[in-house]
C-alpha cells in the first residue's frame, strides 16, 4: 500500500505502472506511519478483495474502507487492539471482510491472529471493545499468514508450512470459534494422486533450511458446484488441498518444482539447460482467472 496523492505515479517503467489508489488517507494512519518511523517500529499493511485496508504497527490495528476513501473525506478509521504476543504483529495475520448479511458496506468483520496462534475476532469493527478470543494449539509453531476460505472458514499458514483450519460460527449470540490442524491424506486415492505427481514433477525431497512461505485460495465452478482449493509453497515445494467440504479437507498432492523452475529459468536467461545448482525459491503465488485451477 502506498499513501500519496491520488493519481501520483509511485513507479513507472516500460513494463509496469504503479499508481496510488484512493484519495484520502485517514489521519490515524499518517500518524501511525510517523510514529513508526520515529520509533523504528515494524509496520505493515494489506488490502482485501472487498477493498478494506488495514495497517499494523506495534500492538495497534487500523482498519478503514479504501473504496469509500475515494469520495468520502470523513471515512471512519477504526483502531482495534491486537491480541497479546511476544512477537511483532504483522498485517498478513489479519483479515477484514464484509459479512454476508446484506448490511451496509461500511461495516465489516475482522479476525486477527498473533504469531503464537491467539485469535481475536470482531463481529463489527464499529464496536472495537466487543471481541471474542480463542487460542489455537500450534504445538510451538508460529503463524505466518491468514486467508479467508469462505464466510465462516479461514486458513492459518505456519512458518513450517502447516495448515490450520479455523471455523467461526456467527449464527449464535456469541460466535463459536474452533480450529484443527490439517493432515496429509492417508487413503489409497490420496496416495495415488501424490505418487503420480512425484512421477511428473520429481520427488519432493526434504528441506532443512527455513524457506519463504506463501499461499492463496482458489475457487472454481463446474456442474453448478463450487470447489475451493488452498495452494501453499514452502521454498520450491508446492502443496494443493481441496477444502470444498468442511470437515473433509484432502491433500491432493505435494511436489517439488525446483528442477522445472531451474530449467525454465536457464532456458529463458541462457538459452540452455544449466546443470549447475541454483538457489531458488517461490516468493509469491496468485490465483488466475482460469476456469479450472492448476
What does this structure look like?
There is one protein chain. The protein has helices at residues 27-39, 188-201, 258-270, and strands at 9-12, 17-19, 43-47, 52-57, 60-65, 77-81, 94-97, 109-113, 118-122, 132-135, 143-148, 153-158, 163-169, 176-181, 213-222, 225-234, 237-242, 250-256. By secondary structure, it is mainly beta. The strands form 5 sheets. It has a 4-stranded antiparallel sheet, with helices on one face. It has a 4-stranded antiparallel sheet with strand order 7-8-9-10, with no helix packed on it. Strands 11-12-13-14 form a 4-stranded antiparallel sheet, with no helix packed on it.
Which key features would you list for this structure?
18 strands, four-stranded antiparallel β-sheet, 14% helix, 294 residues, mainly beta, disordered N terminus
Shape: globular
Please give the alpha-carbon distance between the first and last residues.
Answer: 29 Å
Number of helices: 3
> What quaternary form is this?
single chain
Short description:
It is built from 3 helices and 18 strands.
Amino acid at each position: 500500500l502506498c499513501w500519496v496523492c491520488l493519481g501520483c505515479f509511485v513507479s513507472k517503467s516500460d513494463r509496469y505502472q504503479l499508481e496510488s489508489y484512493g484519495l484520502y488517507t485517514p489521519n490515524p494512519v499518517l500518524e501511525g506511519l510517523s510514529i513508526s518511523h520515529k520509533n523504528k517500529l515494524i509496520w505493515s499493511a494489506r488490502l482485501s478483495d472487498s477493498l478494506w485496508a488495514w495497517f499494523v504497527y506495534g500492538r495497534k490495528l487500523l482498519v478503514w474502507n479504501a473504496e469509500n476513501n475515494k469520495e468520502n473525506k470523513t471515512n471512519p478509521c477504526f483502531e482495534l487492539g491486537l491480541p497479546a504476543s511476544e512477537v511483532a504483529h504483522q498485517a498478513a495475520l489479519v483479515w477484514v471482510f464484509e459479512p454476508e448479511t446484506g448490511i451496509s458496506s461500511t461495516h465489516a468483520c475482522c479476525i486477527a491472529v498473533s504469531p503464537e496462534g491467539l485469535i481475536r475476532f470482531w463481529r463489527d469493527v464499529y464496536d472495537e471493545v466487543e471481541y471474542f478470543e480463542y487460542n489455537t494449539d500450534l504445538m510451538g509453531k508460529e503463524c505466518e499468514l491468514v486467508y479467508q476460505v469462505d464466510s465462516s472458514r479461514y486458513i492459518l499458514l505456519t512458518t513450517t508450512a502447516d495448515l490450520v483450519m479455523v471455523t467461526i460460527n456467527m449464527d449464535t449470540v456469541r460466535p463459536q470459534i474452533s480450529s484443527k490442524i490439517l493432515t496429509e491424506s492417508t487413503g489409497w486415492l490420496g496416495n495415488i494422486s501424490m505418487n503420480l505427481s512425484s512421477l511428473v514433477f520429481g520427488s519432493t525431497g526434504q528441506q532443512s533450511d527455513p524457506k519463504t512461505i506463501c499461499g492463496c485460495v482458489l475457487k472454481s465452478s463446474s456442474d453448478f458446484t463450487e470447489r475451493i482449493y488452498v495452494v501453499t509453497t514452502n521454498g520450491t515445494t508446492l502443496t494443493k488441498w481441496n477444502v470444498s467440504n468442511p470437515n473433509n479437507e484432502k491433500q491432493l498432492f505435494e511436489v517439488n518444482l525446483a528442477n522445472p523452475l531451474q530449467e525454465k529459468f536457464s532456458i529463458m536467461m541462457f538459452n540452455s539447460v544449466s546443470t549447475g545448482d541454483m538457489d531458488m525459491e517461490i516468493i509469491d503465488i496468485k490465483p488466475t482467472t482460469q476456469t479450472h485451477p492448476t
